Amino acid sequence: xxxxxxxxxxxxxxxxxxxxxxxxxxxxxxxxxxxxxxxxxxxxxxxxxxxxxxxxxxxxxxxxxxxxxxxxxxxxxxxxxxxxxxxxxxxxxxxxxxxxxxxxxxxxxxxxxxxxxxxxxxx
Length: 123
What we know:
Layout: H1 2-12, H2 16-30, H3 34-47, E1 57-63, H4 68-79, H5 83-91, E2 95-101, H6 103-115, E3 119-122
Antiparallel strand pairs: 1-2, 1-3
Helix pairs in contact: 4-5
């Protein structure tokens, strides 16, 4: 570790022109390019925004939990579907109840369905 610290100290003393010459010499000696290293690092940096928190959720009904009538009533209240449509949605689970909703709304819908006895998954 002490050798690395010495090397860093010595490299810190280089002027900008000397550092550029060193980079060129290393590229030639090792057969690599500094541009290639940047190109490899760029996709890793681009992947970082994908780790941002999700803002839109789909509420998926996964089952009625044996309380089909109560779940149908909640689905009707949440979606404003008619009785036939709500019944068909519950019977065809897993099925999306609502798509592209905020986290708060998705949690609220999940709470209502779970309270009625159904099971829900947020995606």
